[in-house]
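Predict structure. Chain length: 326.
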Amino acid sequence: MKKNIYTQPLDNAQAELDSTGAATGGGGGCAGGAAMPRSARLPKWLKISVGFNEEYLRVKRIMKDNRLHTVCGEAACPNIRECWGEGTATFMILGKFCTRGCRFCDVLTGRPLGLDRDEPRRLAEGVAELGLKQVVITSVTRDDLPDGGAEIFAETLRELRMHDPLVKVEFLIPDMQGNMDAVRVVLESHPDVFAHNVETVKRLYRRVRPGAELHRSLAILKEAHNFKPRSVVKTGIMVGLGETLAEITDLFYQLRDVGTDIVTVGQYLRPSDDHLPVERFYPPEEFEEIAAIGKQIGFGHVEAGPLVRSSYRAFNQSKQLLANAS
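Prediction complete.
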């Protein structure tokens, strides 16, 4: 069982958090990292308090009853109590097993167990039972599927809007091995926000994201920017893996050049001793500096902070951009 060092000592509430997923770290990955080894010492700005209200427990029950996976639990997000306590969640489709082995990520790597064609219906019914008006949907990477799972994304959106035509949907997709036909299948379902995370700067790709390529991710974001009707285009990165501010700035320019509207930036935290170590912890004021650089470059919104994750308060990030597009 993963252990969480954000709040000590380990009490009953903390044990509940461990069973759902220990507090996480990744900046905006498909999942992000998770709880760091207990031997690590976190700076004060990364420590969070534990608390669970009735709404959190209600959301957890509905997830379990509908056999739904969430990034909140699978990737062990540090914001799980806040988001579930407010009746919101980020769903993870296409199973629990990822075919990649990114060295920052806490999602299980393995051979996926087929394809659950009934998952879109169950997810839509779960969202309806929760009474959600906006949802974020992501997935594990499925390199075993010819379309990377694109059709399941599209079917999920169709099911969601059958239950509620006004529901706001953000998709956060993997790179689908650069298959643009698959990417277009997702875009043709017309999500309100289309997200794909580049995760880190180019120099660190081989170490952080083996099997992924920055130019491939940039091409996906550019495809989304050019697609009509156009979704809000979003990406996310982690910091703390050895990147420099100059490299972050250069990446921002590349992201803006391909038409990205929103960028999220968060602190990478090490899931375990088997994952990449944290090179440094960025203090809150440095996240403010990074956000200011992004805004100066011209992004519609930059969400940057130590505990920021790609889907955290997702529709607060995109609300104004969606209003301008309507």
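Summary: The chain has a mean pLDDT of 80.
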